[in-house]
Amino acid sequence: MDSGNEDALDIIITNVVATFRTRCHLNLRLIALEGVNVIYKPEVGKVLMKLRKPKITASIWSSGKIICTGATSEDESKVGARRLARTLQKLGFRVRFSDYKVVNVLAVCSMPFSIRLIDFTKKNRPIASYEPELHPAATYRIKQIKATVQVFSTGSITVTGPNVQTVATAVEQIYPLLFECQKPLRK
Fold it and tell me: Domain range for residue 33?
């Protein structure tokens, strides 16, 4: 983006999803009985555990696979995952923190203008699709970087991608396309 005539866009990360393995079997019933901030869901075979700082929710399976959601940065996600592993160690499990990976990042961003979604979709087919009967946003998929952008007529966009860098790249790529489809300002 040309920073000479535009203000920088604020990309706000709202959720980082990461996975890791403990490399040991976990007794879900024991975690439910002795852990804190835990919800046991035996019908789906998992335990939900919440941490307050950093604020994350973890889905824990007996196989040792754990999915952490709710962090607002990649660093916060890793700190939360490590704290969770430590909590399980304190419950008596022989946890070894491994295979940590950020799998999804969700971010929101507001353009400083409104967007004509029908024009945007027509100019960017087949990458962009818009079905107002199903969803109020146009969907723009960037296959090369595995990112998806939801574009709303208000100028708000939500971006999902495999990491924070991909999300930022997606916003940079879509900005000029949105800029040429902006609604004229009413006087």
Answer: 16-103
